[in-house]
Amino acid sequence: MRRAWPGLLGAVLLVLLVLGLTGDPLATDTRDVLRPPSTGHLLGTDELGRDVLARLAHGALATLGTAGAALAVSAVVGLAVGAATGWRGGRGAAVGRALVDVAAAVPPLLVALVAGLVAGPGRTTLLLAMVAVGWLPFARQADALTAALRTRQWVLAHRALGAGTARIWTRSLLPELLPTAGSLALLRVPALVNTVAALGFLGLGTPPPAPEWGAMIAASVDHLGAAPWLLAAPVVALVAVQTLVSALPRDDGS
Predict the structure, then answer these.
(1) What φ, ψ does residue 247 adopt, rounded to 5°?
(2) Residue 92 Cα distances to 81, 102, 144, angstroms
(3) Which of 59, 128, 175, 178 would suit a FRET pair with 189, their CA atoms being 20 to 30 Å apart?
(4) Which locations, inside or outside the cell, does it occupy (predicted)?
(5) Alpha-carbon dihedral angle through residues 218, 194, 19, 217, given to the nearest 10 degrees
(6) List of residues 6+ apart from 5 with CB closer than 8 A
(7) DSSP per residue over 93-162, as a string?
(8) Closest CA relative to residue 187, chosen from 149, 125, 223, 137
(9) Helix, strand or coil for residue 51?
(10) pLDDT in tens, 128-140
């Protein structure tokens, strides 16, 4: 039963997502303002009479989509930079590692806040700001692994046989780097989703009236007493995503 509950939770969320995507997240109805959950509106309606389930489902595409895109770009950039510095070695690589360490100390939320305030709110600004710091952990990991791998006997043997750098990378290094990068990406999913939601809460994400989980939480604050389901829906969704990610198997056997 313990192993089955993540699948059950995922199935429930998938059903709700499909049902929500069939609705219009922007359709308003002044006759159905702040209605509690019912058969007509499974998660109730908001202050404009919009269906909360429809907004939650379409907001999942915005929140999770932005986090996923930022994660994918960050992983590619980080792997490329880290593998390059780890393979090269020397003083230049040492300087690059020092710069990466300094940049990694800057809170990602702070970078995203500054970018949002300078360039204005929007998904593109948010994505670029998250990638600007999101690639650093991947670079540090790839650098350390590549530096250790390039002195292995089988890599030295490939070099002695005349194999080029591109062939060694594609045939030998990438198969070693990708599994660990995948595990790191999985670990970073909850933090990235929370960052997207936090910036949406602060008004720096996708502009309204487009649905987004952080913006939904912000809009619910003024109606906590009359309509607690407005806050409960996106918060439970965020917790569910993190719960599912934590239940996924990893290389360490957890």
Answers:
(1) -85, -10
(2) 13, 16, 15
(3) 175
(4) Cell membrane
(5) -10
(6) none
(7) HHHHHHHHHHHHTS-HHHHHHHHHHHH-SSHHHHHHHHHHHHHHHHHHHHHHHHHHHTTSHHHHHHHHTT
(8) 137
(9) strand
(10) 888 888 898 999 8
Residue with tokens 């008004």: 203
- pTM, to two decimals: 0.83
The CATH architecture that domain 5-24+59-247 belongs to is Orthogonal Bundle (1.10)
CA 118 to chain centre: 22
Q: Which DSSP category does 49 fall into?
A: S
Tokens 């046989």: give the residue. 161
List the one residue out of 25, 17, 65, 21 whose CA is nearest residue 45.
25
Strand, coil or helix: what is 45?
strand
pLDDT tens figures, 27-86? 999 889 999 999 989 999 999 999 999 999 999 998 999 999 999 999 999 998 888 888
* Angle of helix 123-149 versus helix 52-88 axis, rounded to 10: 40
For residue 221, the SS3 value is: helix
Give dist(CA 29, CA 40) in Å, integer.
Answer: 13
Q: With left for phi above 0 and alpha for psi between -120 and 50, is residue 229 left, alpha or beta?
A: alpha
Q: Nearest-5° angle of CA 99, CA 199, CA 226?
A: 160
Would you list the domain boundaries of the chain? 5-24+59-247
Tokens representing 26?
Answer: 């922007």
Both tokens of 83, joined, read 């593998």
Specify which residues 45 forms β-bridges with.
51
